[in-house]
Design brief:
This protein is of the alpha+beta class and about 280 residues long. The protein is built from 8 helices and 14 strands. It has helices at about 15-25, 40-50, 65-70, 90-95, 100-110, 135-145, 150-165, 220-230, and strands spanning about 1-5, 35, 55-60, 80-85, 115-120, 125, 130-135, 170-175, 175-185, 185-190, 210-215, 240-245, 245-260, 260-280. Strands 1, 2, 3, 4, 5, 6, 7, 8, 9, 10, 11, 12, 13 and 14 form a 14-stranded mixed sheet that branches. The radius of gyration is 19 Å and the shape is elongated.
Amino acid sequence: MMIVNPISGAIDKAEFITAAERFSHQEDCKFVAYETTGIGDAVKIKALFDQYKPERIIVAGGDGTIKLAADALENEEVIFGILFAGSANGLATDLGLPKDLEESLLVAFQNNYIAIDSILINGNKSLHLSDLGLNALLIKNYENSTIRGKLGYAMQAINTLLEDDELFHAIIEVNGERIECDARMIVIANSQKYGTGVVINPDGKMNDGFFELIILKNLDLLVMGKIITGNMPDDTNDVVIISSDKATIETNIPVNFQIDGEYHGTESKLEISVSSQKIKVAIP
């Protein structure tokens, strides 16, 4: 069963569907495709699953599409195969999946997989990277823009840096400690990299039963430059990284918030924990 987001990444998905169907038939598998519409997708995906009982789910879309599929089928025993086909491909990048379509199909159909953690944030599932602050505002601006793909992200990154100069105050309860700080951004990380390839959580592992809080107190051009070039600042005045399986974050004002590349409005309190459910994803 293939789940396709037809508008993600400004890429025509017809080639993806044709290639996956051809590959399925070569492997002597039945094939069914579902294209998301943004209306009732989770219910429709579950209904198709119940009808066909597939053993493998192929996802052609970005992190948001993967999360949609995982939410819809969270209680089912399946392996997800991921194709690079979104604006944000952070999970695929982190897992080292090939970008070539035929190579990615080979990986998606094989039986080597990783069981990755899922993080619950106010009851919503996060598989990859979620955050409060500057990056969430960037995603909001991107979703409201008409230019998609990497160019759209780059343009909105510049606009967002120019637009946002406001710190927020956060109270964080984690590992039996209470931390108070001013921040530009707080990341809840289940993995290492954003879809752009930028490493935000150098020591993160997706299957260790923990997440990391990355508190970015300063995001001036120097710090941003270090992060973008893969050199996470080691000055605790700029960045703090905390590993845990449970945390609470409260902010003094509502702050822009995103989960796995999708804007979720503003939040002033987050309850975060590691779910007991894991998601199986095919890897090389």
